[in-house]
Structure prediction request, 500 residues.
Amino acid sequence: MNKSVPVIQATNLSRFFGPHKAVTKVNLEILPGSAFGLMGENGAGKTTLLRLIAGLILPSSGKLEVLGLDPSKQQTDLGHKIGFVPEEPALFPELGVRSQLLFFGGAKGLSGQNLRDSVDHQLERFDLTRHTKQPCGSLSRGLRKRVALALGFLDDPELMLLDEPTSGLDPVHRESFISWLLKKRGKTSWILSSHDLEEIQSLTSHAAHLEEGSLKGIETSTDLAHLKPKQNQLWKHP
Amino acid sequence: MKVFSILAMREVKLTFLSPRSYLLLSLFSLMSGLICFDQLRIFNELIFLHMSQTMGGFDLGTLPDALNIRRRIFLPLMDNLALALAALLPLVTMQAFSEDTTNRTDQLLAMTGARPISVVLSKFTACGLLVSLAIGTAFLYPATSLGHIEYGEEQLAGSFIGLWFHGLALSSIGLAASAFTRSQVIAAVTTWAIGLAIWDLAWLASLVPGAAHILQKCSFQEHFVAFPDGFIASQSVLFFLTFIVLGVCLARIALALRRLTG
Prediction:
């Protein structure tokens, strides 16, 4: 990990879908080794921001550098350095769990024993060893999410983009994932989007609040305690 | 190269897992057999008529032009099979990119760091393999029925090489159509429309009278004529290769545009 280059450097970053402003003039700098959270209501722009960082979509205006690379021009190089776990797991339905990981790792440039070891490690890590041959199209949502997490972390990326990483996971695997991720703190950088305030607090050091595509502020996660909603109330940033 | 072979392997598996591919293979082989049989039947009837007019005897040197084997068998066989390919191939190419879009696995592919051109070429390789297999199996009946008379082998081989190039060009167009839309139906209809329109652009000459010659030169059919002569004209090969490259480039551009449109 290059400690001198910010993980994310966004300047006036905007993304519009027609008249809809999904992300508006976001200025953000995230340092290496950070665990950073994104919070906000549905449609606030969290997923769009993550997709911009992953290079899956291009900014309408502004400048963005991820690990010192321009995602719009260097997506291929960036693909080898970052992992992305979308909220809804996208998997090749015809491939079995193990084949899925082998294919993904191979396409990422891993090969031979290194690839097989990484795949076996991930299968064990995400408790998928009993499902290795099951086609991903026939898996439950929770299992698909675990496969998506295994794919995201397969080649130990420098930066992980996690969009609602624990949604769909059962409590046991949720806790297991959170405690495992915490052990990686400082070694890997991650940006995590979640509606779950406790998850943001436990997994990130700082969190940005997005509202209608705009960045409303960044706070340390410990300062977020006062944002806990009262029962039956929607969480709302002050 | 290694990443490309991994991507291509998956595409080939996916193509041959699809029942549509087997539908194409079986229908195309069946049509090839039926059309070839029918052309041979008509040719035999004409030969018989000619024999009856010449009191039973003739030699190859005195055969009228109406009994030209190229005109009576190979050209119609190639024309009909080319149209059959244009009708069947979009059923396979229509799912090339739209399937990935629907499952959002296009994002998964993007996150591997694989170059978009590798993704396009891997899909083209799978389609190309299917086309080659379809042409190969369709070649069997005409080859066995004409092979034993030891006449016209070069013309037959030329016809099927022409069909192969035509199939590859259609695959490329089909991939581009699939990359530009999320709908499989739109992709298929677009490929049919383009494939049939380019088949014979002479119909456009009435609308653009000054460009009649150019339009004719841009028609697939125009470039088919050389193949049943039993030789491979570099101009025609270049024409089909241009279409193949154009289709691949358009599909690559479509992938780039997806990042713009989201």
